[in-house]
Write a structure and sequence with these properties.
Distance between the termini: 31 Å
Number of strands: 23
CATH topology of the largest domain: Glutamine Phosphoribosylpyrophosphate, subunit 1, domain 1
CATH superfamily of the largest domain: Aminohydrolase, N-terminal nucleophile (Ntn) domain
Number of helices: 18
Structural class: alpha+beta
């Protein structure tokens, strides 16, 4: 839980089966496991001997894919799927993915996780050549880039390889042609992408290992930053032309985005969050009676803080699991009541107690202030707020909706000022050095641009985040 409902753009999945199979149901199950990565829209494309059948719409996976809809996709040898939250492009059916493209060299379907920082320039380039865009997301820009290179290359994988010279920013892709399934990860490795296999020999790709677990697939490995992997009737092969750059995985995958039961780059997400709590205790110790976490993202860090400090862990909030998305994104009139609809403090846990409250982030401060007020109303004697990441001082341009500086509370006041704004007795953030240590076992480097303003890839100069994204929307 956090002030602007920080969300990651999406989750992707792809499967290539040597034999025609019920790939639609497997994709459905995988997308269900990836639902946390995108809750606005979803879609599935099935390839049956070069014939693409697809369905996509606004809504959750279980809403969009009823039994009859899923059955209508039929069987096939290949499928890709996508769940989306829009950080660029409006939330509408036309922006739902996967994107299906009809081309002189055959059909393509593309699902994308991330944001391009040069999408606006590329889009202008293609429009000047006569391209007509149907959507406002940068996945369509990628599709034009691919089809342009496909005209001059002997294979779709070579088109992908050459398109990657043009694409700047974050992208984990699954691409389906009539004969092949291709997965590709940007050279910085901003977003996760893993490969697995099923007992029948099927090859699968997914944003997280929890999707592999959901369909009974064995994890093989993470894709390398810059790697392209091709699965077809001849087998599986890797193209590493773009590999070798220092990796910069978004560290917020470990703080918040990924499911706790996933493993990213060799590191358990659950263990990383426990360590975040342990490091928070070392950096910001406090005398208290109970440690609680904000559901769901603060719970693991709260448990780690409790273990390290010896302060008892308690259940401080009950979360209403049946609150609809209308209330997850409330209108202005509903906003003041939204936290009470989603959370209720457990008086037995906090009344008369000195409480350590753990959350994953503070963005604007409004939701944090309401959570503190809930605890005060339930009788908490003291509230010591601890945050399992550093303050946000810069926007994200790589697929996360961390806002422009004028909307970030840490850019408007110092930590004591934030503490006063949210009404806590004390406030401590995990340091930049600390957040880089939470996933010590991970085989990668990290992007911490939203905490430092130091980005691995050049971002739009002197352009506020909202202006950047409105340009991407055309």
């Amino acid at each position: 839980m956090n002030d602007s409902g920080i969300r990651e753009e999406c989750g992707v999945f792809g499967i290539y089966s040597p034999q025609a199979a019920d790939v639609a149901s497997l994709t459905y199950a995988a997308l269900f496991a990836l639902q946390h990565r995108g809750q606005e829209s979803c879609g599935i494309v099935v390839n049956d001997r070069g014939i693409f059948t697809h369905h996509k719409d606004v809504g959750l996976v279980q809403e969009v894919f009823s039994g009859p809809v899923l059955d209508s996709l039929g069987e096939g040898s290949c499928a890709i799927g996508h769940v989306r939250y829009s950080t660029t492009g409006s939330n509408s059916r036309v922006n739902a993915q996967p994107l299906v493209v009809r081309h002189i060299k055959g059909p393509l379907a593309i699902a994308h996780n991330g944001n391009l920082v040069n999408a606006h320039g590329l889009r202008q380039r293609y429009e000047l050549k006569g391209a007509i865009f149907q959507s406002t997301n940068d996945t369509e820009v990628i599709s034009y880039c691919l089809t342009e290179h496909r005209l001059n290359k002997d294979s779709i994988e070579r088109a992908v390889e050459h398109a990657m010279y043009d694409l700047k920013g974050a992208y984990s892709l699954v691409i389906m042609s009539a004969q092949k399934l291709i997965a590709a990860r940007d050279p910085n490795g901003f977003r996760p992408l893993v490969m697995g296999s099923l007992p029948d020999g099927s090859t699968v790709f997914a944003s997280e290992t929890c999707a592999l677990d959901a369909i009974g697939a064995d994890f093989i490995r993470d894709l390398l930053p810059g790697e392209i992997i091709v699965a077809d009737k001849t087998g599986v092969r890797s193209i590493r032309t773009h590999c070798g750059r220092r990796s910069s995985l978004c560290v917020f995958e470990f703080v918040y985005f990924a499911r706790p039961d996933s493993v990213i780059e060799g590191c358990s997400v659950h263990r990383a969050r426990l360590r975040a709590g342990e490091l928070l205790w070392k950096e910001h110790p406090v005398e208290a009676d109970v440690v609680i976490g904000v559901p769901d993202s603060g719970l693991d860090a709260a448990l780690g803080f409790a273990h390290a400090s010896g302060i008892p862990y308690g259940v401080g909030f009950i979360k209403n699991r049946y609150v609809g998305r209308t209330f997850i994104q409330p209108s202005q009139q509903q906003r003041s009541r939204a936290v009470q609809l989603k959370l209720n403090a457990v008086r037995e846990t906090v009344e008369g107690k000195r409480v350590v409250l753990i959350d994953d982030s503070i963005v604007r401060g409004t939701t944090s202030a309401r959570i503190v007020k809930l605890l005060r109303s339930a009788g908490a004697a003291e509230i010591h707020f601890r945050v399992s990441c550093p303050p946000f001082v810069s926007p994200c341009y790589f697929g996360t909706d961390i806002d422009s500086k004028e909307h970030l509370i840490a850019c408007q006041t110092d930590i004591p000022g934030i503490c006063r704004t949210i009404g806590a007795d004390s406030l401590g953030y995990l340091s930049v050095e600390g957040v880089q240590r939470i996933a010590a076992e991970a085989h990668c480097g990290f992007c911490t641009g939203c905490f430092t303003g130091d980005y691995p890839v050049a971002v739009p100069a002197e352009m506020p985040k909202d202006k950047f994204e409105s340009k991407l929307e055309g």
